[in-house]
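Re: that backbone. Tokens:
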């Protein structure tokens, strides 16, 4: 009897002992796998610590349609900068300037300006702080009051000027107005330079030489526009705090900086239409900062009808002016007046600026 009782027990112990190495092996492998994400997280935290940036202060937007729209305006800035760097030594200067300046579609340029202005707003600390306060508000069901992002968007829907009335928004609006005036000043400065050069070029042999037929030049500019690739997307660091994200424009290239323009005079909103545009800019900025954007929202709100009409007229006038030119100096005057000065006026009106 004793042997019969001990036999099965020994066999059970033997089975347990024989199976334990296999279980230990599985546990060991699972343990190593589980440790990998933890080790990676520790490594990432160590990396952030060495750079002085906490892991939870960086974000990546789910949608980049605002940056894509803004890039159309930044491309115009880039073209202005490229033209500024070209010395007036031969007729190719006005040819290259014409190709670049005539290569912008009025609707994309107008929408791009609004989109970029929204990024300028989203980059302002005071605006971010104002949004943070709104997002911290709690839902009060009994009173029918929504909190958080739903409450913010509900308030904007009920009152399109809601964001403009928030404490902390004024500095952000001032930053947009300042950008508009300063950009206009830099663009119009180049425009006046072209007009001045037009007179100086009359004293040079190359400035008075006959160039290709005007229609050929207009066609070349149109072909140049169609052949260009889409504008390059910016690389922002996107710092985030309490659910509010900023683009950090200073982290991208110089042409994305709000200080790209030249120092100029006072900026101010002088008409009702400008307030409507400012409200659209603030709404896009709020959507961007809370990472609730989508392409349809950008398409609907990144609109500036007055600028678009103005830019369309400027483009038409430029083509008509170029059609009447026969020499580089005549072409330079057209580009200065309609390719540059008119554009400065078409974008600067929001800030009460006329580009002069």
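Recovered sequence:
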């Amino acid at each position: 009897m004793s042997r019969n009782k001990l036999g099965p027990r020994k066999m059970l112990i033997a089975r347990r002992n024989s199976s334990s190495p296999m279980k230990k092996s599985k546990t060991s492998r699972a343990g190593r796998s589980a440790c990998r994400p933890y080790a990676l997280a520790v490594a990432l935290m160590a990396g952030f610590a060495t750079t002085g940036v906490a892991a939870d202060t960086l974000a990546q937007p789910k949608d980049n349609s605002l940056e894509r729209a803004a890039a159309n305006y930044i491309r115009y800035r880039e073209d202005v900068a490229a033209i500024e760097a070209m010395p007036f030594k031969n007729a190719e200067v006005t040819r290259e300037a014409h190709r670049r300046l005539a290569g912008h579609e009025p609707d994309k340029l107008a929408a791009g300006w609004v989109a970029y202005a929204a990024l300028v707003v989203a980059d302002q600390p005071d605006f971010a702080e104002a949004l943070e306060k709104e997002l911290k508000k709690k839902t009060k069901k009994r009173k029918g009051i929504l909190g958080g992002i739903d409450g913010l968007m509900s308030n904007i829907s009920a009152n399109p000027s809601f964001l403009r009335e928030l404490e902390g928004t004024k500095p952000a609006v001032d930053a947009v107005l300042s950008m508009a005036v300063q950009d206009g000043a830099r663009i119009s400065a180049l425009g006046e330079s072209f007009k001045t050069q037009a007179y100086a070029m009359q004293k040079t042999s190359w400035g008075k030489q006959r160039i290709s037929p005007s229609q050929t030049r207009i066609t070349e500019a149109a072909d140049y526009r169609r052949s260009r690739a889409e504008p390059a997307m910016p690389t922002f660091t996107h710092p985030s705090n309490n659910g509010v994200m900023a683009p950090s424009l200073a982290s991208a290239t110089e042409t994305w900086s709000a200080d790209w323009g030249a120092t100029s005079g006072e900026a101010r909103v002088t008409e009702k239409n400008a307030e409507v545009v400012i409200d659209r800019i603030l709404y896009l900025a709020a959507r961007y900062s809370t990472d609730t954007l989508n392409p349809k929202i950008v398409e609907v709100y990144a609109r500036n009808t007055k600028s678009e009409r103005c830019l369309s007229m400027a483009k038409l006038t430029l083509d008509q002016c170029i059609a009447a030119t026969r020499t580089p100096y005549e072409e330079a005057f057209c580009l200065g007046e309609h390719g540059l000065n008119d554009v400065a006026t078409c974008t600067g009106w929001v800030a009460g600026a006329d580009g002069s």
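The radius of gyration is 30 Å. Strands lie at 240-241, 244-245.
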